[in-house]
Structure formats: structure tokens, C-alpha cells
Design a protein that fits this description.
Blueprint (H helix, E strand, L loop, with lengths): L19 E9 L2 E9 L5 H11 L4 E7 L16 E6 L17
Amino acid sequence: MRPIETVHAEPRDSVESPDYRVNFWQQSGEAWALDAYALTEVEDITEVLRWVDEHASGRRFEVFAEMDDEPERSYQSPRKTGLIRLLGTNPNVGVTVEIGRFVKI
């Protein structure tokens, strides 16, 4: 980390109450199972962290702020807004996983 002193910010854009994304990761054999949630109508990050603490059940997690306001959709419709990581890591980053293998018959 390299801190850089700066003067008061005049942001180009600001979101007062962003939506957040939380990914819970649990190892299942060699793979990691994912439970993902979008948190809306959040007061601030402390509310998100309290929710994560109550629902993590020992699992690894990531917390993101969503970059754009995205409407609520069904479970089958993936959210597509950009994410800004606030906390945690993805355990799959840098890991090569075999998805399938072709076998000559």
C-alpha cells in the first residue's frame, strides 16, 4: 500500500446509498461453492458488515459496492453492474480448474 496525501475531493459522481454484493464461498472438495446476494436499501457499510457477520457461518466472503443502480430481477437474471471490491478475496483467482476432459473412445 502507498498512501498519497490529497486535498478535499470534488467527486465527479457520488452515490449516497449504493447497493452491495456479498459473495460467500465454501470449499466443497476441490471446488468452491458460491452463495451470492445483492443487498439493497442499505443505510451504510456497517449495516452490510453486520449482515455478513450474521450470515457467514464460518464461510469466506467478499463484499462489493455496485457501481450502478440496477433494478431487482428474478434469481435467474444475473446482475451486470460493475463492482468495487471493499473486502475479501475470490478463492478461485489464479487457480486452474479442469471443467471437462475429452476421452477418445
